[in-house]
Amino acid sequence: MSFRVVAGGVALLAAFACGERTAVADKSASTPPARNDSASAHQFAQEFYEWYTPIANGPHNHPAYWEVLRQRPEVLDSALLTALRADSGANDQSVATRESFNADPFLMSQDPCPSYDVGSVRADSSGYRIAITPKCADMTYVNGGPTVRVKFNNGRWQIVDLVYEKGTLRSWLCTYAKADLNPKRRSVGC
Predict the structure, then answer these.
(1) Residue 167 is inside which H or E element, if any?
(2) In DSSP terms, which residues pair with 147 in a beta bridge?
(3) Do 158 and 36 touch, CB atoms closer than 8 A?
(4) What is the pLDDT of residue 181?
(5) Along the 190 residues of the chain, how does pLDDT read in single tens digits?
(6) Could you give the domains of the chain?
(7) CA distance 50 to 54
(8) Residues sharing a CB contact under 8 Å with residue 157, sequence separation 6 or more, in sequence order
(9) pLDDT for the residue 160
(10) Of 45, 61, 131, 135, which one is least surrounded by beta carbons within 10 A?
(11) What is the rounded distance in angstroms from the CA atom of residue 63 to the CA atom of residue 110?
(12) Which of 136, 117, 133, 3 has the alpha carbon at shortest distance from 57?
């Protein structure tokens, strides 16, 4: 066995033990798709929801979407990332200074289904819109899922916005930010 192979294995083991993300430790850290087409956009959304849905359904002491902000911020475009961080900061205050988004932004639900289908993809002005459909055993109280807007930016896919029946995530976050009693957070991400 060569020194190079041993050193590479030791570096990989050290990175894994320290919790650093590697392609081996985290499938989502794989090389971003190199093409800007609907099949690649669909694959990006499919991989994101396969990663995110178990987190949303698992135990946590904070909103599940905070894990996207913590573990995979690169999947969000900078404006959406900034707006979600501002909203989560307002949500984490002991004294509320504004209304904040009160559902899981990626699932449009307070009680997520066990799985979500990543469906049809259609082109729009800046990328693609991808339909997300919740799959619950009892669909009685389940609304339709969001439509995810994605764009290909700097060699990788990013979520730009989520479209709901009554507006978009960015429009809701900006409405809340503009009404914030804390002037420093009024237009963050808008």
Answers:
(1) strand 167-168
(2) 131, 163
(3) no
(4) 80
(5) 443 333 333 333 333 233 333 333 344 444 444 577 999 999 999 999 999 999 999 998 888 999 999 999 999 999 999 988 887 776 666 666 666 677 899 998 888 899 999 999 999 998 999 999 999 888 776 778 899 999 999 999 999 999 998 899 998 888 888 887 877 767 666 7
(6) 35-185 (3.10.450.50)
(7) 7
(8) 32, 33, 40, 41, 44, 75, 150, 151
(9) 97
(10) 61
(11) 10
(12) 136
User: CA angle at residue 78 from 77 to 81, to 5 degrees?
Assistant: 85
CA distances from 186 to 72, 79, 82, 97, 144 (A): 25, 14, 12, 10, 30
47: tokens are 């991989």
- Is residue 178 a contact partner of residue 90, using CB atoms and an 8 Å limit? no
The whole-number pLDDT of residue 71 equals 97
In this structure, what token pair is assigned to residue 95? 């004294």
Q: Which residues, in sequence order, are bridge partners of residue 123?
A: 128
The maximal CA–CA distance of the chain, rounded, in angstroms, is 63
Q: What whole-number distance in Å separates Cα of residue 159 and Cα of residue 180?
A: 25
Give the pLDDT confidence score for residue 153 in this predicted structure: 93
- Total residues belonging to the chain: 190
Q: In what order do the strands lie in the sheet with 128-135?
A: 115-123, 128-135, 147-153, 156-164, 167-168
Task: Check residue 99 and give its pLDDT.
Answer: 65
Q: Which two tokens stand for residue 11?
A: 């570096």
